[in-house]
Fold:
Amino acid sequence: MTAHDLLFELGSEELPPVTLQALSTALTDGIVRGLAAAGIGHGRVESFATPRRLAVLVRECAEHAAERTTERRGPPLAASVGADGQPTQAALAFAKSCGVEVASLDTLRNDKGAWLLYRGREPGVETRAVVGGLITAALAALPIAKRMRWGAHAVEFVRPVHWAVLLFGTEVIAAELLGMISGRQTRGHRFHAPGTVTLASAGEYAAALRRAKVIADFAERRRVIDKGVRALAAECGGRALIDPELLDEVTALVEWPVPIAGQFEERFLALPREVVAATVQEHQRYFPVEAADGRLTRWFVTVSNIRSSDPARVREGNERVVRPRLSDAAFFWEQDRKLSLDEHAAKLAGVTFQTKLGSYADKTRRVQALAESIGARIGAGDAVGRAAALAKADLMTAMVGEFPELQGTMGRYYALAQGEPPEVAAALEEQYLPRFAGDALPKTASGQALSLADKLDTLTGIFAIDQKPTGARDPFGLRRAALGVLRIMLEGGLDLDLALLLEAAAAAQPVLRPATAAEVHAFMRERLRGLIQERRDGTTPEMIDAVFAVEPRSVLDVDARLAALREFERLPDAAALAAANKRIMNILKKAPPSADLAVAVERLTDPAERALYDALIGVAPCVAAALTERRYADALRLVAGLRVSIDRFFDEVLVMADDPPLRANRIALLRDLRLLFTGVADLSRLPG
Structure:
């Protein structure tokens, strides 16, 4: 089958850098899905994205889809042949609709009957005929929050579109795409090669643009920037601090990257390191440079989109624009320290946390009470109360107003500046940890308590006002908060009663809903399920269900029970015991409720039921002791020792005996056995 490279490029004004990669990925995925739906085969698919273009190159794309076999079921066979053996009108009409004679039809037979059947072959669609439509569909499905119109066009896109390329090998496929008629002309670098670039074929796309000073491949451009920035920083005697997100953003801003080094005044190094880094990175999109000892230097590296004939002027321009930013930061640093954190905190009463949940001062009071309660359980000492009282104070500082990402961090600096104990200062920053998946956790007990209290207050408060996450929408970051709580408890080894803490947090909210604590608990259990499954340590979904069924109140306790279940699953008797549990549960479901659940020893008339009772009584105290000490693996091994007695009981004893007292006694025995088995987990939920 003949195949050619297929190229689509959309040229526009500068695309939003933060969403460039997402747009590129979505466009590629949309085109690939469209080709698959049409049955068009192809080879490797390459994506390209720069500030001014999105492109997809499909290698070895077939000229048309493969032929497809089609089948149509006709009338029942009984209604297709008349008494004279000739085709009926129904058979003739069906054959005509298929374009064949009745004699060419097949017969379909199965256990439900027999019918006439048409089998035919349908030619595959021509790629040239459908590619414009599938690209239009892919463009319409791009994740663009707000589309715009331009000029007299009725079409909408994230930015005005200026050209479109659609090549199939060397041939142009004419199509109207976002108001542009596709052709073979792309455009080079806005300054170095501003004219049009005529593409002879789809396959030469990347090379042709490189000659026009455009590195079209996002990943390649990113590598070039990373390597260039690191090399230039090394020439300056330091090491570039390259944040992956900033690297992505800079890559999305340039087409022909040229690293340039610059410096700022020494006096700005007296500012907190994070302030300098935030100014350089967030405001200017520069890469700071640190010395071998880890201290920041005066150097930074920026990435220009042009290779200037006068690099010194470019460097001076970048140095000139960063200076007022750092001067502002220095001013904020001086002004903020003129007030104590207590004075800053006093302003929180005038700032709303959430309309129905009160001000930040209200939240501070709730968090302080909960943090002190948690702190008492984990040995945090008096520092936690002081830290909680000052937790949100830095929100009122000018520095955090300018750099919101420094909340907590500036609280730590201001606390140390006014002589607060180191643990108080550390807790002010640690309250926000972890900020994202895989982030560091609080190290101090006060930080752990404050972080937990803050997140639990937010979770229960937002659930109380019925603003829980729905689908992809989570404006208050409740999923992140829940995962943070769980990680702190799990990785920090904090044996806390999560249900009790949620009840306390919910009870402190100004909006009281009886179901709040339970709803948040269920929400967090699903996050815990995800955390556990990500570990890939052999824990199965059935194990998690089995442990959740007995409702442990501590996250650490859940983990300990799961570890015991993983060990239990390796026992030879595990599957048989799980099956026995299912059988016991099914019997108990059908048994009538009884007020008298105690086993009457004198009614144990069968040797097998007496043997099971004796084995149960013998092992129960040891199991109880193991459960109390959370030696769950030991408890399960003890329970596993009952298998022989259980098997004999079910082989020799009729539980649902005709004699009501005898039946009730045997049911009571099974209830006791079931309670013993569910001490660690509901084993009936395991495969068996």
User: Anything to note?
Assistant: The mean pLDDT is 93.
